[in-house]
Amino acid sequence: MRRIAAGIGCCLVLVALPVGFGVQFNGSDAYPDATDIDENYAAHVGERVHLWGVVAGERDGSVVVSAGTLRLTVSDIPPSSVDSGDGIQVYGELRPNHRLETRSYHVQTPSDRRYMYGVSLVGIALAAVAFLRHWRVDLNRVWFTPREND
Amino acid sequence: MPDLLTHALVAYILAAVVAQSDRIQDRYVSVAMVGAVAPDAMKLSVLLNHSVGHIAGIPYSTWGVHTLGGVLVLAGLGALTIRVGDRFVAGAALAAGGASHLFLDAFVIRVDGVAPPYLFPFSGWLPPAANLYASTDVWPAAVALSVAVPVWLCRRRRGRRSE
Q1: Is the ipTM above a cut-off of 0.95?
Q2: Looking at chain B, which residue has its C-alpha nearest residue A92?
Q3: Which of A19, B59, B72, B94 is the most buried (most CB within 10 A)?
Q4: Interface subset of B 85-114, CB within 8 angstroms of A
């Protein structure tokens, strides 16, 4: 009974954490959210933003980055150095007409991300196999208990 | 984050060193590895594009789980799935694995030079990003593997000798 109460308590805190984090950090780490920017772009001009987006193409010799519904033409990134579909982390200052003056950026190609997801699945499998080599499920008590030789 | 293989291997190495002490049994090493991958459970919401939003006008961000508070709550929840006699040490191993996850994440490249508030809800401090590696870099896993394999071999040899 005490275990169930503790479990419910933990679940409640687990739900409270995203809400508390969202309230304190306004739904993003420290900067306006891409959706918020897009909804009222003029109000955010001049602000510094840190966006995680995708290279959406090229316009007038500049790279276009999309983050959610927001599309920005970014400076200082040579179009030849990126491909459409690349993931991009970009930091800079918002300018009129949906332009971003880039201060720094980092690009991840789709194959980079495939490697990350693939090797992460290996990591999850490794942790699960290691755990189940030492622990088994006790169906009567509904918990994990050490295996006999542990 | 670095990839989850790096997280699991680094937790394995650290827990294996701690388990050299006879007071900590080997079975807790694997618990620390589970703790090290647990904080990224919230990444499912990132993949589904629901990590940030509003419910009934209230803002939320599942990144709140990828914090010290999240690590402690997940460790508490995980510990409740372990039998009573092992619960305390297992909970500590889960929390330690989760803490190693956040520590490694502080070294990820952030182009604004600022890491997220990993100490939430205890502190809203935004630590400087160490900018050592990207989550897609191959070398962190290679380095972790090059240390973890000899550690595993040593532990295996020691286990055979004590049999």
Answers
A1: no
A2: B112
A3: B94
A4: 86, 109-114
